[in-house]
Amino acid sequence: MENPWEIAQKQFDNAAEKLGLQEWLRLKLREPRRVLIVSVPVRMDDGSLQVFTGYRSQHNTARGPAKGGIRYHPDVTLDEVVALSMWMTWKCAVVNVPFGGGKGGIRCNPKTMSVGEIERMTRRYTAEIFDIIGPEKDIPAPDVNTDAQVMAWIMDTYSVFSGRNVPGVVTGKPLDIGGSAGRDEATGRGVYYTILNYFKYKKESIEGKTITIQGFGNVGQHAATLLEKDGFKIIGVSDSTGAIYNPAGLNINELKEIKTKTKKVTDYKDAEKLPRDEILFEKADILIPSALEAAITKDNADKIKARVICEAANGPITIDADSILREKGITVIPDILASAGGVTVSYFEWLQNIQSFYWTHQQVIEKLEAIMNTAFDSVVHLAEEKKVTLREAALMLAILRVAESSRCRGLYP
Ligand code: NAD
Question: Which tens digit of pLDDT belongs to each residue from 311-331?
Answer without folding.
Answer: 999 989 999 999 999 999 999
